[in-house]
Each structure stands twice: as structure tokens, then as C-alpha cells.
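Here is a protein:
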Amino acid sequence: VGGIILQMYLWASTFSKKGWDVYSFSENKSQRLEFINFLRYPTKRYIGILIELFYSLVLVLRYRPKIIIIRGATRTLAYLSLYAKLTNSRIVFFAASDSDLQISEELIAADHDKKLFRYGLKRVDSIILQNNLQQDLLLKNYNKSGLVIPNIWDKDRWHHVKTDLGLDDYILWVSNFRYLKRPQWFIDIAKKMPHLNFVMVGGPVDKKLFEACESIVEEIPNLSFLGPQSLEYVNALFTKARVFVCTSTIEGFPNTFLQAWSQNVPVISTFDPSDIIKEYGVGISVKNIKELLTAVELLQNEQDYFAFKDRIGSYFKNKHDPDLCYEKLVGFLGKRYCS
């Protein structure tokens, strides 16, 4: 499950609990799953944009939503920003990665799709950001401002599963395998710290990188390479982890941070959204492998380690509670759309 999908699911759950009817899309068939009404939305290669244009218009006119939420850079924002005018719907763009707001750096393959996304973003007034850097980028590149709401997390939603690892107090890395996630850094620190246990989880977005890392790990006995796993399984891994490590070059607000903090697990990260890690003392922000090693060793000290855990509990509830974030969003959108 990607970060965008997971956050959309959690927001859908929150809206549903507040009495909203929630709709989303499926390539297969129209059906209701849990609290979401899925509408069939077929895709076809080469003519996909034509289908999107047609089905988006039909569905917006048929269901006339009060609010349309789009998360992450996508060409869909362009035509939905136009269609929303027809039904007086409020379209809300949730930024995902910081790259969404960096012109030409959006994580979209085709240049024409990037241009469509930028066109849509220029037309949207309601923008939700994950961190202060995104606020700065939005002002610099689009001369707009938005509301900062970090990702939400409902730790009571997930059922517990067994991991059967036979390990406790391991150093955990969870991410998709892409070069910007720098999985090699985590492998390097595992090699240099044979006295500690390391666990690595993630799917092969970049198949060659995934296979290269998998091959290297075979020679590192203290590193367990688990490949892709279910969300419930990963949540269970966090319950027994000592530390979570993020080695990414760029993010928005990683869901993995919330998975860690919901279990009072400190984060060591090369990416610090809005300097939250530094400001609230919920982990350690680092810049290179040397600092990574130092941070991991520091968190082996029990006194330092439990000081971090104590700070995490109070921070997490106040910043990432779904109900609190919902009220903040509703206040931003106004009674006209949320009554």
C-alpha cells in the first residue's frame, strides 16, 4: 500500500465517521467495501486520458459532491478543477511529496501530464500541505498559501498479526525500493554493526535495485530482508522494533513515521519534515551514514532511549489525531461546504 492510498483511506474513514458519504474509484466494478462506495472507473492504455475526461465529468455530474479530494501530483487535477465549477463543488488538493510543488520535479512520467497538473494546481484555492517546506515551495512557485495538516493515523484501526521473526529490539527500515529512498545506506550500517539486528521491508518499485539489495543482504547475517509485506504485518513489526530508520532524500510526511510514533518508537531520519524531529525530540535527524551510525549507537543507551519514548507519546496525540485534524480541515473549508 502506497503512502498516498493509505492516507486517502484514513481520511475517508474519518469523513465517514463524521457522517459523510464517501466515494472512490475501482477499475473492476462498482461495490461498497467497508465505508467506501467504489465506482467503476475503467482505464485503457494510450486512450486513458480520454476515458478519464469522460468518466470524471459523468461521475461529478451524477453525484455532485460537496468536496472532491485529490492527493499527490496527477493530471486529474486539471479537468476536475474545471468540472467542480459545474456543480459548485469544493476541490481540495492534498500535497504528498515535497516534489509535488517543485516545478519539473513532480513524480509524473510524462511532461504533458506535469503541465496538466500545474494548470490544475493554479486553479485550486484549497490546498493542504504536510510541512512548512511545502508551504514555502507553494508560495515561491505558485504564489499561493495553504493549510499545514500533517498526516493522520488511527492506531486502533488495524488488527494485530504475528510476525514470526523471533526477534525483538531490531532496527527497522520500511520503504519502497527506489534510489531516492537510499536503501543501500541501511544495508551499510547493518554491515558495520554486526552486534545489532536489522530488518528491511519494501516492494520492488525499482526491480533492479530491489534484486541488487536482496543479493547483497544474503551475505549479512544480522539483516533480515522481508521484501513486500501487508500493512498489518508491517504495523506488527513496529511493535517490536527499537528504532525506525528513514534514509530518503525527499518525502512529504512519511506514514512510516506515524507507524513508529504510534508505538513510541524513535525515528532516525535523513529527512525531517518541518524540523519536527528536532523540535519535539521524537528521534534524531541525520545527514550522512556516519551520523546514522552515531544515532543508532546513542539509542542503545537505555536512559537516552526512554527519554525519546516519553516525548513521543505527548507529541503524537496532539499532532496526528484524525478527529483533531478533521476539525482543522473543516474550519479551513468553511460551513458552506461542511455543514
Q: What stands out?
A: The radius of gyration is 21 Å. DSSP finds 14 helices and 13 strands in the chain. The CA atoms of residues 147 and 332 lie 8 Å apart.
